[in-house]
């Protein structure tokens, strides 16, 4: 199966065709580093990482860019998020940005997310943002008030195409730039540049510009930085579904208005929310769980990655500690199975590799891909073949399945125990449970001196170190 991806822009699953041969430009909306990202935020980055791994799996070279938003992002009350955090923590806005950028990058490493080819901080690229705004001013699609310079959405006829909403329905979603300004022509008009006046007269981050001392709005940074790194048109742009009605809609409008080229991005891809039984997880909802929260519960971040991969990225995923603990157990069992494999990998299992490729190429169907991996490990193929294919799969899944040292059961004992396990499974299939229990006791008696025990899991029996 060729690689097929769901394109939010066209609302269809399409065979992916790079704009430039086998070279792919990928941009991911990064974090606003004013506080700790929550687990739902990281779902978007695991999704983007999986996409990058699948692209590489298909022989494509990927240039991946992720931005760091460290200026310009306002909350629903029009307050600057960095200044609010700085006041609460007793630090400067610059210290806040550095602190949470480092925390974010550490969390990506814990989740085995491949770093982007290029990090781009908004504050490092203010001149690029100003230059792009000047192009928009020259095109006549902006207007200026005493407080800010705005993009006039009425000048862009396809403004609501990505979200599929009428403009009068969309105005309620223009939450990030809710600043009282009676001179705004349309509630959906968004700020390209905030002036250092009114509520922002003492704003800590500010730069000179043709429109006065001030700072850029949130949306302009992604257009300016992505085009600088990847060109005025590129292949793929990812983010959460909450970016569709405002941020990504605004990116498209300002980018295509400035360049006159459409589409700005060929394929837009969006990941669904991680939700709690009570609703969406989020900082504003006051229910944000973080990577540190996992550690408090004694859970491996890679178990959380495994939990995420069990669902399709375009489907909402409900978080619970019971579900995550079950995923942690399943992840441990996978690692143990990998640790039992012996031999030097040479050639894999073609049948399973074909199924795995079809799964991930079907719009990143990681749940199906994991099922293929499970069946591979339970199959009767030689160990060395299973090991080769499993490592190939893990390069896409990113679970570090072989990071656990191989289970050091002596080969002679392992051969005997495996024969007993097969005999036990045959007895269980015949519903001769008493005999099967007796054989289990024998297996555990054989394993005990070496420090191992037989564990029954939903994916079959595994030999595990004694806890």
Structure notes:
It is a single chain. With 467 residues, this protein is of the alpha/beta class. The protein has 15 helices and 16 strands. It has helices at 39-57, 81-89, 93-110, 126-138, 167-170, 218-230, 244-259, 291-296, 301-309, 321-340, 350-361, 366-378, 383-397, 411-429, 433-447, and strands spanning 4-7, 12-15, 23-28, 61-68, 118-121, 142-144, 148-151, 190-195, 214-216, 234-240, 265-271, 274-276, 279-280, 317-318, 452-457, 460-465. Strands 5-4-3-10-11 form a 5-stranded parallel beta sheet, with helices on both faces. α4 packs across α6 (218-230), α4 (126-138) packs across α7 and α11 (350-361) packs antiparallel against α12 (366-378). The chain is elongated.
Key words describing this protein structure:
alpha/beta; 43% helix; 467 residues
Helix content: 40-55%
How large is the share of residues in beta strands? 15-25%
* Overall 3D form: elongated
Structural class: alpha/beta
Radius of gyration: 26 Å
The residue-averaged pLDDT reads 91
Strand order of the largest sheet: 5-4-3-10-11
Describe the main β-sheet briefly.
5 strands, parallel
Oligomerization category of the chains in this entry: single chain
State the distance separating the first and last CA atoms.
43 Å
Helix tally equals 15
In total, the number of strands is 16
What ranges have pLDDT less than 50 throughout 5 or more consecutive residues? 172-177
């Amino acid at each position: 199966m060729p690689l097929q991806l769901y394109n939010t822009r066209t609302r269809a699953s399409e065979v992916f065709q790079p704009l430039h041969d086998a070279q792919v430009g990928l941009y991911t909306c990064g974090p606003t580093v004013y506080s700790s990202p929550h687990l739902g935020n990281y779902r978007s980055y695991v999704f983007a990482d999986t996409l990058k791994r699948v692209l590489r799996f298909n022989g494509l070279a990927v240039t991946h860019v992720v931005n760091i938003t460290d200026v310009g992002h306002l909350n629903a009350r029009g307050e600057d998020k960095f200044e609010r955090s700085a006041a609460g923590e007793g630090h400067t806005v610059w210290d806040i940005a550095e602190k949470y950028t480092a925390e974010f990058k550490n969390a990506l490493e814990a989740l085995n997310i491949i770093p982007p080819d290029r990090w781009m901080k908004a504050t490092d690229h203010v001149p690029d943002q100003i230059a792009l705004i000047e192009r928009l001013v020259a095109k006549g699609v902006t207007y200026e008030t005493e407080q800010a310079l705005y993009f006039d959405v009425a000048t862009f006829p396809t403004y609501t195409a990505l979200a599929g909403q009428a403009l009068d329905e969309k105005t309620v979603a223009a939450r990030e730039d809710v600043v009282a300004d009676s001179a705004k022509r349309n509630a959906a008009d968004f700020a390209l540049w905030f002036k250092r006046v009114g509520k922002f007269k003492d704003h800590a981050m500010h730069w000179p510009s043709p429109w006065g001392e001030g700072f850029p709005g949130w949306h302009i940074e992604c257009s300016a930085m992505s085009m600088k790194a990847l060109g005025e048109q590129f292949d793929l742009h990812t983010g959460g579904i909450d970016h569709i009605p405002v941020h990504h809609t605004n990116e498209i409008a300002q980018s295509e208005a400035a360049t006159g080229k459409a589409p700005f991005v060929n394929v837009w891809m969006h990941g669904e929310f991680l939700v709690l039984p009570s609703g969406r997880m989020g900082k504003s909802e006051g229910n944000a769980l973080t990577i540190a929260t996992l550690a408090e519960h004694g859970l491996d971040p890679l178990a959380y990655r495994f939990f995420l991969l069990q669902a399709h990225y375009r489907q909402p995923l409900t978080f619970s500690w019971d579900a995550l603990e079950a995923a942690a157990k399943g992840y441990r069992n996978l690692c143990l199975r990998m640790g039992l494999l012996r031999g030097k990998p040479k050639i894999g299992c073609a049948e399973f590799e074909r199924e795995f490729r079809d799964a991930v190429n079907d719009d990143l169907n990681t749940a199906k891909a994991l099922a293929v991996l499970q069946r591979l490990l339970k199959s009767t193929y030689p160990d060395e073949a299973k090991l080769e294919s499993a490592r190939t799969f893990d390069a896409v899944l990113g679970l570090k399945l072989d990071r656990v040292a191989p289970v050091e059961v002596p080969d002679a004992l392992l051969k005997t125990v495996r024969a007993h396990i097969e005999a036990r499974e045959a007895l269980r299939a015949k519903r001769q449970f008493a005999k099967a229990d007796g054989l289990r006791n024998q297996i555990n008696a054989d394993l005990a001196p070496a420090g191992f025990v037989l564990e029954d899991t939903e994916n079959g029996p595994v030999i595990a170190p004694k806890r």
